[in-house]
Amino acid sequence: MPKVIKTKTEFEGRVVEEYVVVEGEGLSAWEAQTPLRFVGKRTPRIDGPERVTGKAVYTSDVQLSGMLYGKILRSPHPHARIKKIDTQRAEKLPGVRAVLSFHNTPTISFRRQTFLFDQIVRYVGDEVACVIADDEEIAQDALELIEVEYELLPAVFDPEEALQPSAPKVQPDGNLLNGQPEIYQRGDLAQGFARADVLIERTFKTQCALHNCLEPHGSVALWEGDSLTVWDSTQHIFGVREGLARLLGLPLHKVRVIKKYMGGGFGSKNNLGKYTVIAALGALRTGRPVKILLDRHEENLATGNRPSSIQHLKIGAKRDGTLTALELKAIVAGGAYCLWPPSVGGPARQLYACPNLKTEQYTVFTNTGPLSAFRAPGYVEGTFALESVMDELAKELKMDPLELRLKNYTEIDQTTGRPYSTKGLREAYERGAKLFGWTSLKKKGQGVRGRLRRGVGMASQIWSGNGMPPAYAIVKINPDGTATVITGTQDIGTGTKTILAQIAAEELGFPIEKISVEIGDTQLGLYAPLSAGSMTVASVGPAVRGAAHDARHQLLDVAAQVLEVPRESLTISDGLFSSPALSECVAVPEVLKNLENFMIIGRGAREPNPEDVAVNTFGAQFAEVTVDTETGEVQVERIVAVHDSGRVINPLTLSSQIEGGIIQGLGYALFEQRIVDRNTGVVLTDNLESYKVPTALDIPEIIHEMIDRPDLKANNLGVKGVGEPPIIPTAAAIANAVADALGVHIYELPLTRDKVLKALGENHA
Amino acid sequence: MATKTVRPKKLKITVRGPGKTPIRLIVNGETHEVLVEPRRTLLDALRKDLGLTGTKKACDEGTCGACTVLLDGKPIYACMVLAIECEGKSIETIEGLARNGQLHPIQQAFVEEDALQCGFCTPGQIMSVKGLLDENPQPTLEEVKRALSGNLCRCGAYPKIFKAALRAAKLLESRNTQGSH
Predict the structure, then answer these.
(1) Percentage of residues in chain A having pLDDT higher than 90
(2) Residue A66, CB half-sphere, CA atoms under 13 Å: how many?
(3) What are the two backbone dihedrals, phi and then psi, of residue B96, each rounded to the nearest 5 degrees?
(4) Would you call the peptide bond into B18 cis, given omega within 30 degrees of 0 as the criterion?
(5) What number is the ipTM of this complex?
(6) Could you say which of B60, B66, B126 has the minimum Cβ distance to residue A52?
């Protein structure tokens, strides 16, 4: 019988409480020593062939009969009031089917107090109007024919300036998100600092980074009667469905959202985009399907970013390294529209035992492109500052940086007082240090080779990744002996389908080749959460195991009666029934063939999270760099990473996640940055030529290992997430290695040549 | 001094457009006739007019490599040439690699090494590897990296893409030696 429960869970540094329905019997996780056939085995992606042959259909590949194309006119001004939009010339262009703007569309609320087509534009790139035409070229031509009269308003780009009372207001209620800073504190900060032998106070700055997923954001909308179907490049089909239904005034069941393959998201595709709603309106207006795909420039303006931060960090410690107090004041540039604050203070609050602590975060509206989640939002930025200051503290105390971290190690979650379900960080430190050769490299000190200097550094990682209910799945056993896993999750490129197939094969006792997985369609009816927060496998995986378990039991019940053997004597392995009462094994189709098209359907739901422990992921990374003292160029030679994300389901795809996270972290550390002109608010790096993402030539040697210990309390698989953890400590480890090479720390990312040369010059002086 | 006028050779200029014009494209060995605007890129002609959506559009301005195809055997960005420029030339796309339902060894190596995550840059990466291995069947790691330096992968699958390229070279070599017996 379904049970309704209340559950608390951590998502990207925020605690969420909600009611969920759970069903089915609680299964306990497989123990570490349980022999498993598919789970834990290196398994190439089951959808690999589609992806390498070009047969995988991404949203951007969807072409429907009679389909029109939409192109969005975007504001050239950072802050302005639209007085008038004249679309007559554009509408007359042959092939143009509609021009949508605030003049002729319903007033639809979007992001709190603003609208889908708002009469105020708040950043260069904000949506003004949309042309729907027979082809993209025509739509593009028509955009140039729209005449817009703007009344320019004063703009503010710098978050510190935006906090001044005299600053232009970006949002009606002012420039501070929620009207107040987010404050967390514990213990007595003043007393903690008073007890310290050593105090270090620093200001760190991190840049704004752009996702640049290779598949642009985009949607295709099709109306059939009063039902809307949308193909969307999204990390959350159910979220898009909810948003569309709410904004368009439709019942949920009249909206279907499909996402089969997606070309990257990294958090930027977590939410419903304006382009999706506009495509739906355009399709309604024209009576034809409409596709809107953003171009690369729009991707760099209007699809979100990892916001820049300014972090004032003060840390106090005893002579032996014990932390006595920690204070962080962070200012985050949220851009023009921002609904939630990324937890920049998360690492400071959680990573070390520290009784006296305060974090204070100001998330500020500015006339720039809005922030969105970007792989471990807040934690990448916060870890850079915290782990940099820990290195400076170690230097001050003449301690090994790793020793300082171990000195402040905690088995208790500092924010809730709960013990961790499992914490493999100590082992990650030890194994990482050994793999890297930390002790001997540290002893050797800075290596100098001509104009090149070598340095080493390390950093730690904490993140949630515990997964959560609700998530539902069914497993069907087909009469031909194959099984189909059905759930409403989405594979965002992480290998979800393959992992769900491995779990189902294991639990069913079927060969993995017999398993297919259907996901990415709200019409399948089985809710799953957004694919973000490193929680897909830990949320959906247990539901799939539950469903497979149910299906296997039903199958055995049926088979025992068909084969006329005692139920308890019957087992299934490799898709074959066996029993001491049978002379030979019997294949599944042999049993099901006489039952017409009877189909077994097993149901599963994600169990609630445990209440008495904290479930988190951990890791440590070590970096070796060489710095060219003449050019200021930093070359990352080697990264060693050891992470603890509980049980590993697929070592092959997991290792892709680790490498990918490290490589994105390397880009963030060394060269990625959005540059906004401070006079005009124009993004100067709005393409892949000027916005530098890592290329094949930037890749260091990456060595990684997993602790791979099932977290038996976390869920019925013992898994935790791994998507975000690997990006978290990379920039901090590289920055610490560069500081080791230079003898002086750089407090601002990215570590571009100008900053390196400046630091060298100051150190020399 | 007597002057001699040198007349330039008469250039044969064909004016196409405005509006749609018929062109003939040879893609994966098959000839197609399509009607396109002269400004249509090879990329859009492949994707929209021929329905070959395996070649991906990620930047449309020659900065990412997702649309790499082989033009007369050389890897090029399909977004940087016009379809009308490609008339009569041999165009090879990702759809032309697998034969009789069998993955090409490069594709096989990409799957086995997990040389992809979201898979959006993958067709372009594979075509660049194909271009490299056709020219240089036994590349070094450095040569692989150079050949792929014009193909961005935002997921960061690079280490496994390198492995897959080197594995593909081996697979092709063993296939060729077996084939010669």
Answers:
(1) 93
(2) 9
(3) -90, 0
(4) yes
(5) 0.96
(6) B126
